[in-house]
């Protein structure tokens, strides 16, 4: 320190803080202050890119005419332990993760509209032995966030939106909330989910329940004031969901399996929900979420021990970095994809002509060959 002070004095460098506030104690730079300063710096850099440069890395520049395809999946590795850390802290970012209170309000509104009194966990892959299910429930009881449900662009693989799974498994309502609130307003045309066969039937029942729902009038006045306010909020959310999905635009959304995941389903399920068998459905890779999860899961060793706000901010910054890389490489990838498509189109046209030639009668085939020789 003495050497540094001596060098400053020789160079004529003056400590401005010491001159302006000579009696003020200097704050030391420890781990907590450095972490807070780094968070604020990262937030300012992101705000500069979003606000001034108008570059949103969560939006695809090639999908300006609407979202042609979106893949929604959940990652249970991105959980957060129940440690009660930094309960006072609020999240810096709100662009990627949906508000937890809004998501839970949508889930409660769906339960109210469908008449569901309890939310049954989706223990489809736990088997018939109760110990497997009990183990998952015990593990989730020690977690504040049990996972993250993420929506990605099915054509170009960029992140779009996400929601925290709070104290539960991968329920259908999380994907429904993301699709209704984040995707329908952006012109969603095609939706991919790994369990579309079950989810599509469930979503149809939910839409019918939202259309038929009538708010009670007699029992509401007999309830306490706080319950009346909660019921009014639920009824307002039911009306919002009804306006979003009970229109012709929701029925026009093509629903299909994710292509790579759907190859493991039964043949009957593939014929009904595989993109290659669905009319008007584009055939994509269908595992875009897994590509994003392979990057986000690298941060799980750190985010699982952070607070809710800290883990959400860290994953948001990671998703923004992933989207920034996608944006930088997108033009080159689109050119390569177009060249590959033209080669496949030329090969398919040649195979089609060859197949039609093999089905031609022998006399007509000889005439076509003679005409080709003359030409």
UniProtKB/TrEMBL annotation:
Pfam family, one: KDZ
Protein known as: Uncharacterized protein
Species classification: Eukaryota, Viridiplantae, Chlorophyta, core chlorophytes, Chlorophyceae
